[in-house]
Amino acid sequence: MKKLLVTGASGLLGLNLCLDAAGSYEVTGLVNRHGLRGAPFRTVQADLSLPGEAARIIEALRPDFVVHTAALANLDACEQNPLLSARLNAELPGEVAEVCRRLRVRWVHISTDAVFDGARGGYSEVDEPNPLGVYARDKLAGEKAAASDPLALIARVNFFGWSLTGTRSLAEFFYYNLVAGKPVKGFTDVYFCPLLANHLGSMLLEMLEQGMSGLYHVLSRECLSKYQFGVNLARRFGLDEGLITPTSVRESGLAARRSPNLTLRVDKLEAALGRAMPGQAEEMDAFAKLWETGRPQQLRALLEG
Hints:
This protein is an alpha/beta fold and 305 residues long. It has eleven helices and 13 strands. Strand 1 (3-7), helix 1 (12-21) and strand 2 form a beta-alpha-beta unit.
């Protein structure tokens, strides 16, 4: 059985990937603040903000694959703590690249659609990024650092799903507020192409298994506004879509600038995999089925012990 190391294993993508891969790989998940109790895979607690920590662990474990999801992903937190953002989002990928290149370990670095300014949308992998804020600038720097390993796979992503705390994805924001009967706002002028985290994780492993490298957009083939995303979720779960007020991101008062049109092309990936990427209805349906089969409760049990 191949060895899989996942950094950021208590995060939304990392944890779901570890759980879904545990039966097919010998999984080790690196966690920081959020310990996992009773997880069906090995966990190692580590502070990847410390220089050399990631390299030490990879050298000790000698995995076949590394999925590097660890990051400071809260945009406003990056604006407030640019030094930590620079360390985790810009510098750390270079350290992972160096050790993986030296050991010839196949790995994937998780980047973001936010490297673009969102002025026009429809971006492909050859379009020039123009990051707007601290998070986006550091993630672009992280891409360049990761690319120092010619075998690295770099994935620009946007995803949603069920998380350890229930607070890590836009889907959870809409779901838990609507279930409680609380009114929420949905941006009508911010567009994205999210994948379900579970589908993203399995796709990344497939790409690693196939020996793919270089830069790919790993997203849904269909894009929509964040308001429409909330409406779709309400309809799938039978909740009151009238609780969602359409609004502009310009009225949000958010500290970090948001790119308005992050519609990205996925034809490069579709050609490489030989199939179409999932659409939004398929992804929302899979998200609902995870609820029906108890994934949120399974995640909470790992946090509560």
